[in-house]
Specification:
single chain; about 375 residues; alpha/beta; Rossmann fold; 2 domains; six-stranded parallel sheet; 15 helices; about 45% helix; elongated
């Protein structure tokens, strides 16, 4: 198949999933074209089966904000026409599904019926899409996609609750390439690079937005380090990073918290990690938690959104109510205080990720594409 993928080319979960999916499809022989404003961060090669097309924004003094949707839909028409694409797989309802619909309409005038598959990832629904300014456009985009998928049951339920949806929504969980983490764990994991032999290592990875509740991460770790020798690795960049650095300084734990910024070596960082902290206000799925579990890391998280579909309470880690930092710290300590308990959680976390492996999920997306191609309006 000839497939176009539209995503945000960032470190966020949707961009990571879209990029990994595109590379896996190319490995299977499909022709894949990424269309976005920057090279996706996880896209580590270009080949005869894998292509990148940049959406250029023209400066025009009339516009206070440049109309990305217009530039994107125009580029999609160009790429679909030139490379005879059959499927557009767009990640995020806004602005991607909306732009894809406009491209579809323009292409129909040329006699080209491009099929549009829309994958909902979370903030396009729960934070942005439900805003009155966007709600009508989001409903329209979802209902006029050929096929709609959601990364969790929780997100599907939220979408049906917040919008008037007439289209069917198919749940396809996010996935990971477990082999990548297997290789990292087989290598010599040099924990000594970040912690002493007697110290436990806790990690948080995100885009440091308010929804990730970065202050709670620090609060949880502060209580843990009072009970056990430990270090905290903070991976990512975003608006809450500076506040987190100030919080760490105020608590006097600067020597125990390491801010690593954005990193392309997530599997190596997780190889060091004993417990992953994810006290988010909302997670449509929790890809970061799944990546941690693939690296044999126990997860301490909230019970919000799709996280209970990923993190199994008492087995792969623990779930707590939103904002209950005390409970999350107690749970983390209960795992970390004993080597045998820790190892049991690590093994269970790793085992649980097998159902989310790329080999299981990729054929499901291929079936979705075939269903879209066979769909007659």
């Amino acid at each position: 198949m000839r497939i176009g993928i539209v995503c945000y080319p960032t470190f966020g979960g949707s961009g990571v999933v879209a990029t990994e999916l595109g590379m896996a499809l190319a490995d299977k022989g499909h022709e894949v074209h990424f269309v976005t404003y920057n090279l996706p961060v996880r896209l580590d090669f270009i080949s005869h089966k894998l292509h990148f097309h940049e959406v250029l924004m023209e400066e025009y003094p009339l516009f206070q904000y440049q109309p990305y949707e217009l530039a994107l839909s125009t580029k999609l028409v160009e790429v679909v026409s030139k490379y005879k694409l059959e499927i557009l797989h767009v990640h995020y309802a806004i602005p991607h599904a909306y732009a894809a619909y406009m491209a579809k309409m323009m292409l129909l005038e040329k006699g080209i019926d491009i099929k549009v598959v829309t994958t909902l990832h979370g903030t396009d629904i729960t934070l942005v899409g439900s805003h009155p300014s966007y709600k009508t456009a989001v409903e329209f985009s979802i209902n006029n996609s050929d096929i709609v998928t959601s990364v969790s049951k929780s997100l599907k339920e939220d979408t049906l609750r917040l919008f008037s949806i007439t289209n069917e929504i198919k749940v396809i969980h996010n996935f990971i390439d477990t082999e990548k983490y297997d290789l990292e764990l087989q290598n010599d994991c040099q924990r000594i690079a970040v912690a002493k032999p007697n110290e436990r290592i806790l990690t948080h990875i995100s885009n440091f937005r308010p929804v990730k509740r970065i202050k709670d991460v620090i609060k949880i770790f502060y209580k843990v380090q009072q009970e056990l020798p430990s270090k905290l690795l903070m991976v990512g960049e975003g608006p809450e990073k500076r506040n987190a650095e100030l919080q760490v300084k105020k608590l006097g734990i600067e020597d125990k918290v390491i801010f690593l910024g954005n990193s392309h070596e997530i599997s190596k960082i997780l190889c060091y990690t004993d417990v992953f902290l994810l006290p988010s206000e909302s997670e449509s799925f929790g890809l970061a938690a799944l990546e941690a579990m693939a690296a044999s890391t126990a997860v301490i998280s909230t019970n919000t959104g799709g996280l209970p579909e990923v993190n199994i309470d008492g087995e792969t880690g623990y779930l707590s109510n939103l904002g209950d930092c005390v409970n999350m710290a107690i749970n983390a300590i209960s795992i970390l205080k004993d080597d045998e308990i820790l190892m049991n959680f690590k093994k269970a976390a790793k085992e649980h990720t097998k159902q989310f492996c790329l080999d299981n999920i990729l054929p499901v997306y291929e079936d979705v594409y075939n269903a879209a191609l066979n769909k007659v309006h």
